[in-house]
Amino acid sequence: MSAFSPEMRTRAEQLVAVYPQRRSALIPLCHLAQEQEGYLTEALMIEIAELTGVTPAEVRGTVTFYDMLHTEPVGRYVVSVCTNIACLLAGGQEMLEHAEGKLGIRAGGTTQDGRFTIEEAECLADCDIAPCVQVNSRFVRTTTTDALDSLIDELSSGDRSDIPPHGTLIRVQRSVGLVADPKEVEAQRTKVRLADSKASS
Amino acid sequence: MSVTDAPKIVTQRRHYDDSFTQERFLATGGYDGARKALKMTPPEVCAQVDAASLLGRGGAGFPAGRKWSMLRKADLAYLVINGDESEPATFKDHLLLESDPHQLIEGAIIASFALQVNQAFIYVRGEFALGLERVQQAVNDAYAYGALGNDIFGSGFSLDLVVHPGAGAYICGEETSLIESLEGKRGFPRIKPPFFPAAIGLYGEPTVVNNVETISNLPWIISNGGDAFAALGETPSTGTRLFALAGHVKNPGVFEIEMVKNTFRDLIFDPSLGGGLSRGGSLKAFIPGGVSAPWLYEEHLDIPLGQKQVDDAGSMLGSGSIVVMDSNTCMVRAAWRITKFFSKESCGQCTPCREGSGWLERVLYRLEHGEGRIEDLDLLLDLCDNISPGLAWPPQQTTICVLGPSIPSSIHSAISRFRDEFLTHIKEGACPHG
């Protein structure tokens, strides 16, 4: 039985087909697994190994290397606070400590209700709006402790539908195969030629 | 001196709210460069990029044209675009990915055609959820428009472009590590020389890895000619460049300005750019090119923003990110935090980097927290010397990649210039900044 749901299994197979060599789909498949379960279960890692033609140990080896891939459950909302140099100069450390106090957990921990995880992040590349905070890899741009408090309250009461649960990284799926269907291509060509001739006439 | 009036090349659409859409892109000259390139021959396209003397915008500053010319002739080759921006305080590719993904795709078409490559990848940093969505949407739109896929614009040239998400690892910005990651592996840099990606890259095939900003310059270069690009700036640092300015300045942000013709003083103090220090006081130091670069000071403000000029001053322009630190900054704390970053992000392959970064971090931690000893200063420099012998610039290397030799930069800078601050921490048994 597949550890992926039928819908996710289809998407997984499509992802594998995109790459010249299927092992390249390993990290995208890990993101997909997290979209389904929130973290990488043993069964999902074994299935990813089958899909990509590597051993389960290799999947685990890759998974444990990357910060965004989790082998244990994390909160529905992963709050990442950057304390690297540009954010440090703007109070990133104090922001992290404030988040810890607000949620009653230390960085790396998850609240008992499974709603929030706090991470101390390295530079997230949004240094002009510092200190930088992300929730589930989305920039939320709360640069004051008050704004962070409001955000956490909104997330708690379910008012932030713009931020999908942890694991859902890319909501836009690739709409075409490895090389587009020739018939489809010809239809598009005709459309473009028509538009071009209209524009020039 | 005022900031020179150069055209906006990679940020030309930035001021539009819908700059990321295909509609806006097509209404503002989108694909003009690609259409023109596809009517040229591949060597002619390469010649334009050579004439532009475009330097890689990722950090190493290697000439893009030369990198292309090194590609081993083979039936199968790949282009990989590096969008794994993670050098601390660098946030320009983040802007390009979110604000103008179609321009990047157009650049990918031009580069792929010039290299006669039919398969390209955009590796986007995993933490850029919005960037990933914008780029994937743009790729979908480009296929539908006929700008990707088979027989692009009726030219007979075909290109498949895959958007690949990273998963959080600084080291994957290093090109061989990025290739490993794209093969589904841990991001371990490969040993080079002898074989650079241009000879043995993705899946063992010849591969060109170019930065997002480098590729984003190509549409303008082809549309306007390599010579027009080279007329901006000053050889070898031609064109404009994105500078990401952060820290204690009034207007932090990404600015596209002409290279060489403007200085650090312009960038930090000009009202149209950084606007000066945000909290008053005076300038204590600035990091000129990402945290891997040695620090510069007040006396370096009039150095032009050019690769060679900054190299000559003993640092580097690197990834084009500048962190400004004012007189109220604790330099021990700054050096500690930067070292903590390297310690966490070391991939662990090479002993000097893996062990050295952790030792350095712990020694700096105790200094910052008032538990340091006077011997610690020599200990730090000795450890740095073990990672990068002689503490020279450019650094000597004892490791597979340059992450290791980047670690000493901030520590060496802080101890050389601000030794007194370290001594105060030791004497007072606490950080004077609290």
Automatic annotation (TrEMBL), chain A:
GO terms for molecular function: 2 iron, 2 sulfur cluster binding; metal ion binding; NADH dehydrogenase activity. Keywords: 2Fe-2S, Iron, Iron-sulfur, Metal-binding. Its cofactor is [2Fe-2S] cluster. The keyword Iron-sulfur applies. Belongs to the complex I 24 kDa subunit family. NCBIfam families: nuoE_fam. This is Unannotated protein.
From TrEMBL, chain B:
Residues 332-377 form the NADH-ubiquinone oxidoreductase 51kDa subunit iron-sulphur binding domain. InterPro entries: NADH-UbQ_OxRdtase_51kDa_CS, Nuo51_FMN-bd, Nuo51_FMN-bd_sf, Nuop51_4Fe4S-bd, Nuop51_4Fe4S-bd_sf. The keyword Kinase does not apply. SUPFAM superfamilies: Nqo1 FMN-binding domain-like (SSF142019), Nqo1 middle domain-like (SSF142984), Nqo1C-terminal domain-like (SSF140490). GO terms for molecular function: 4 iron, 4 sulfur cluster binding; FMN binding; metal ion binding; NADH dehydrogenase (ubiquinone) activity. Pfam families: Complex1_51K, NADH_4Fe-4S. Keywords: 4Fe-4S, Iron, Iron-sulfur, Metal-binding. Belongs to the complex I 51 kDa subunit family. This is Unannotated protein. The lineage of its organism: unclassified sequences, metagenomes, ecological metagenomes.
